[in-house]
Model the fold of this input.
Amino acid sequence: MDAALSAFVSIAFHGVAFAMVLYLVSVGLSVTMGLMGFVNLAHGVFAAAGGYTMSTLMVRYGVPFPIAVIGATLAGAALGVVLERLLYRPLYGADELDQVLMTMGLVFMSMAVAKYFWGPTAQPFYPPAALSGQLDFGFRTFPTYRTFLIVSGAVMVTVLWLGLERTRFGARIRAAVDNRRMAQSVGIDTSTLFTLAFALGSGLAALGGSIGAEILAIDPAYALEHLVYFLIVVAVGGLGTIRGPFFAALLLGVSDTGFKYLLPEFGAFFIYALTLVILLWKPRGLFGHA
Amino acid sequence: MTTNAKFHGALAGALLSLVLLVPPALAQTEIKIGVISTLSGPTSQPGDEMNKGIDLYVKEHTKDLPAGVKVTLIYRDDTGANPDVAKRLAQELVTREHVNFLAGVVWSPNAAAIAPVATEAKIPFIIMNAAGAPITRLSPYIIRTSFTLWLVASPIGQWAAKQGWKKGYSAVSDYAPGYDAEGGFTTAFTKGGGTMVDKVRIPFPTPDYVPYIQKIKDSKPDVAFIFVPAGKDATAVMKAWNDLGLKQAGVTLVTTQDVMLDEELPNMGKVAEGIVSAGTYSNAATRASNQIFINAWQSAYGAGPIPDFMSVQGWDGMHAIFDVIKQTGGKFDGEQAMKILSNWKTDDSPRGPLAIDPATRDVIENVYIRRGEMVNGKLANVEFDTIPNVKDPWKEANPPK
Done:
């Protein structure tokens, strides 16, 4: 019985850690796709950019981990600004299919670029000494880095929720998305606002991509390979919310881990079945606006 | 004369002078080798390793060719496991380029699609990876210089049983190479007196291996055999293994060289220390033939790219082709080339002694048991035990009907 309990605790812990990585990367997509209404399949590109920046700074230039993560976040946001101005802007309000084609093209281009500059193998990531090893909680030990991921996810959901659902900036974005013309006519500079929102979404992706590299390793195929997970988290959570993806990621991360443990051969399909059931029951996601 | 006509006149003159400038053809025999490999796409890393080995052999040994013989490599990109593309490329190489050899091929399904083309054209087909066990039976024009997963996984099962371990656990990725690896390990381990606690096939994609590793821990085996694609999957397995403390729980992880790729070791870091794997090649091998290979590699490609078993398979495959050219002076047909190739052997492969079994046209080679260790501050697969002259056990257990 003790062994079963221990296994259960272990699965719950690791499931939550996996969920937090999914959340940290996907919440940015909830901003660009959910709030801005752009079908942004290239979201993983910004996460991968963050991961590559962090890894390069740490391994090649010996930059300490916290500064490398900040650098990665800023690099992701900057890339977001550039691409938003050059590529995304002309397609606001365009057909969804056009947006899909453009962003998918961006994904493939990013894969080729990453392979050209960094080679086809995954980037090394060694957590700093303070965050590696095991953390003793008295009754048992947990890997320190995964504990750090859980804390980061919890902090991030609080900050974002307060920032986007309780501030004027958040209100402006939502107003601009709901009715751009009306927002402009009451004096909101929607052009700058959209660039800022896009930079926020990309920066969040880069943050998630960099600190999540321990679980979702950074390699050229990153943006394509994990796209399904990001889309599931946002779709199940509900477009345009900040809390939604958090609970969706928790649900999916923990149940995915649990079912893979219980039924190793079939457990991996559970996440898709669950997604199907939830979307049939609530097509707009758990927290989506009707 | 109008300007237009003047222009045409000038153009014709220019063309004529160009024709006159072309030197007369030299009396030279050109041997064309069509290499089908993966040059682009997300799965191009093993292809890149193989091609570098092929190019390196040609670079180092062109001087050994008979006078007046020239070797031309013609690369074609199958972009991944795409049998239909591979077949089309093989047909194009045969009919348009008139190649003397087909070679390369990373993926088994691609090799299977190319086999009938080789048979029909009577052109030797040197497989430098494509490790599916039955593939050499698909055409009498195939020889293989790589390995099969049975060939590598059986020795590690044998070795594990010899350690006195009784309870085994197998976890492999849910695809054909995984089944071969599982078959090789479990057959040899149970033959050696062990019993399997469980066999699990893990579906793709799996970003986090924690649930599977936790399951292994709770089953309390003595030894766990794990086979997943090299790269981030393998690294994720090692990290989970470390995080969940299986070493402390008394479980030993064993695997094959496919999981412990030499060029991936730096990305794995400390977690790869102490992991035991079976393999045909480690770039840390100290034998003289490997030192020569490594020196040539580093002077050609610098310290960046790291060779692995794929590179050596390409190198050895070219070695076999060059031996055909040298023995015949560059004049041979498919039958004659196959006679030499099916009896080909060498003592100075970077892998050690290597031979083609005339009965199966598959490779016979040493399998080394290696352990992940730090050597001069770098992680390496250090060989500590050798199982000599291994033949593909699958073919011995499944004779042709």
Remarks:
- The CA atoms of residues 91 and 117 of chain B lie 7 Å apart.
- The longest strand of chain B covers residues 363-375.
- The mean pLDDT of chain B is 90.
- The domain at 150-279+367-397 of chain B is CATH 3.40.50.2300 (Rossmann fold).
